[in-house]
Amino acid sequence: MPPVLVYSTYNLLNWRRLDPSGPIALGNIVCLNNFLGGVDEEWFRLVHVSIEAAAGPAMARLEALQEAARKDDVEGMEAHLGAVQGALAEMQRLLSRMGEKCDPAVYYARVRLPMSGWRGNPRLPAGLLYEGVAPEPLQLYGETGAQSSVVAAIDAALGVEHECGWEAYNGVMAELEAFRAQHRAFAAAYIASFAKKEAGGEKGTGGSDFMPALAGFRNTTAAHRLL
To answer: What InterPro entries does the record point to (predicted)?
Structure first.
């Protein structure tokens, strides 16, 4: 693991339940540690945690979905795809709540900075020198929600070729495309609209050129619908 903040340490390993017997859901989870603190930072991260939890039912079905595809089990495929589609719809619903307590201006000016990394960062154009590690500064991308393995896992699972269950398959692809489109819309509102006012251009949370990448992810997903 590179010596820089990543998605797993920033989000997945940095929360707890308020009620240990309750769900992993907004209202029952809090962050263990924050950088600058405040409602906006806390909410930004907890929305990500809740999305990961909502993805659980989809992750639990992917192996069985592939097995059903190998066996040409149309009924099984449709059942598993329906569960994945439902999970994606819930993930999208949770992502849509980001603006409830995380203001785009506060996110851009305050919440985003500790996650920015040392590559593509106009404040550290040469990178960051790690004394005793390397003689030259290292340029490393920082934390970003794009490091989550959830959507990538669904992408990989849906790469299985089959001739049946098209309607269910396309339903999942539609939700996946909608989730990515919403992610891009939030990135535009929370980063791009502010970055245009600064030198250095549009960079994602971790320092990447994110708008073309997010558009590409969305378009590639749309292109994989079955006709």
So the answer is: Indolamine_dOase, Trp/Indoleamine_2_3_dOase-like
- In this model, does residue 1 exceed pLDDT 80? no
CATH 1.20.58.480 fits 7-119+140-223, yes or no: yes
Does pLDDT of 187 surpass 60? yes
Q: What is the pLDDT of residue 223?
A: 61
Cα–Cα dist 176/181, whole Å: 9
The neighbour count for residue 131, using CB atoms within 10 Å, is 6
Domain ranges in the chain?
Answer: 7-119+140-223
4 HSE (CA, 13 A, CB side): 21
CB 105 within 8 A of CB 95: no
DSSP states of 141-203: B---GGG-SHHHHHHHHTT---SS-HHHHHHHHHHHHHHHHHHHHHHIIIIIHHHTTSTT---
Q: What is the pTM of this model?
A: 0.74
DSSP annotation of 99: G
